[in-house]
Predict the 3D structure of the following.
Amino acid sequence: MSGLQDPSGAPQTSAKPGQDRDVLAEALPYVVPYAAFGVLTMAADYLPETYRSAVYLVKVLVVGYLLWHYRRSYTEVSVRWSSALVVAALVGVLVIVAWLGLDPFYPQSSDEWRALQQTGLQHFEHADKLTGAFDPFAEGSLVPPPVALLFRLIGAVLLVPVFEELFWRSWLIRFLVKDNFAAVPIGRFTWLSFLATVAFFGLTHHEWLAALFCGAAFNLLLYWRRDLFTCIVAHAAANAALAAWVLLQGAWQFW
């Protein structure tokens, strides 16, 4: 059967399903909270140290609002109990053990890379990390230490695992498979999406080597369970373990 004809005689074709989807609009709920957190983080670098706790408080409020605003878009997040969540939490803790254990043994700044080239492998002190660290007890801080710590924990353990997993392992890992990412099932594997998300995740963290292991571990959890909530739990457990270490050791350089 021939297609319908328009007045000029050319055949009309029906639009393919999903052809009129606004891919950018669908990506916004995943990209905007992540971008807002990143922009505010960069802005804090240009402010005096006494403003850092206040900026983090603003980050928690802004990102929390954005996640709530876009909450109806996150239909792939199914909050349900399973024994796999215990495994996920254990993976998160082990990731942080590796994160802390590897830290002294690889360069994390341009100066340390130059030192590596000149003298080879060595014990790296990462003195520059303390310069930009979040220290709730910094003299002159605009936010009282208990409030600063509360918001830091809310951000690290509750918000960051949610918006980062939505960005990395819901949106980007599927977008790299197909621009109409919503049509790609959670947990669909391709080498490009796997390697690219692991590499990008590593490059966005100061502790790039540990972050590569972390990104790979969370991706493997995603492929195993095909469930984003499993990754969120692993990420939350990792950040909670790191927070415990920071608080017990006063190791603010990891914040």
About this structure: DSSP finds nine helices and no strands in the chain. The radius of gyration is 22 Å.
